[in-house]
Amino acid sequence: MKRLYLLLTVLILFSILSATDVFESQRENMVNNQIKARGISHRATMEAMQNVPRHRFVPSMQRRFAYSDRPLPIGHGQTISQPYIVAYMTEIVDPQSEYRVLEIGTGSGYQAAVLAEIVDSVYTIEIIPELAETAAGVLKSLEYDNVKVKAADGYYGWEEHAPFDAIVVTAAAEYIPPPLVEQLKDGGKMVIPVGSPFRTQNLMLITKRGDDIVSRSLFPVRFVPFTRSE
User: Fold this and answer.
1) In this structure, are strands 201-209 and 212-221 parallel, antiparallel, or unpaired?
2) Does 51 fall in a domain?
């Protein structure tokens, strides 16, 4: 009986180590073929994408697709974004090690984890309490102590921690929420998909320069809607 127990333990450990090796290989392939090959060159972003275990942020039934070039469902009508989009939105705000970043739309917590690999602190808001709780648990288990998660309406931002060096919005708004612009630091950048729900939207880069707000359309995207509490 003791030998059988030891054999089962060895087999389980071998299975875990083999799965880890597979995921690491898939993650390296993701970075090289989906991200670097498409022009992402920000070193810290690529290192973060290489380090964050994306498979930990998707439901178990979706883990075999974790490093595929596509968004994946995470429940409650929400998705984890395509890896390239996560990398692009990270790179475009030019994150620095001393930055304080606000994310609107925590979802799975993956984008927050990627940012947390680079910046000093991440404040992320999710309107669906169940997703906020799950994401907070995964982030805690991976020891991302520089991420704070709040279940709330992201339209109002997180005023007590403002101003932010960068804001990343991962849901499509019909217009740019004024409170988010107000909470953006002078010289800061915000990336946000803008457009009608369930239709093609435009990914926009907003730069704050004193009283001037400069916007630039980047490319068409499809994001889940920016939902509000009523």
Assistant:
1) antiparallel
2) no
Instruction: State pLDDT tens for residues 108-138.
Output: 999 999 999 999 999 999 999 999 999 999 9
Cα angle for residues 136, 140, 143 (degrees, 5° grid): 145
Exactly one of 81, 97, 108, 215 is catalytic; which is it? Answer: 81
Kindly give, in sequence order, each residue whose CB lies less than 8 Å from that of residue 71, ignoring residues fewer than 6 positions away: 79, 80, 81, 82, 85
Task: Write b or e for each residue in 154-172: b if 16 or more Cβ atoms lie within 10 A of its Cβ, otherwise e.
Answer: bbbbbeeebbbbbbbbbbb
- Spatial CB neighbours of 182, under 8 Å, sequence gap ≥ 6: 157, 162
- How many residues comprise the chain? 230
> Does any domain span residue 99?
yes
Q: In this structure, what CATH number is given to the domain that contains residue 205?
A: 3.40.50.150
Predicted pLDDT of residue 18: 44
**Per-residue pLDDT averaged across 6-16, rounded?**
45
Whether 7 maps to a domain, the answer reads no
Give the separation between CA 178 and CA 88, rounded to whole angstroms: 24
* C-alpha angle 195-201-205 in degrees, rounded to nearest 5: 90
SS3 of residue 214 by DSSP:
strand
Q: Give pTM, 2 decimals.
A: 0.89
Q: Active-site residue 81, yes or no? A: yes
Q: How far apart are CA 207 and CA 185, in angstroms?
A: 9
- Assess if residue 22 is contained within a domain: no
Q: Domain count of the chain?
A: 1
**pLDDT score, position 1:** 56
Residue 199 is part of which domain span? Answer: 70-221
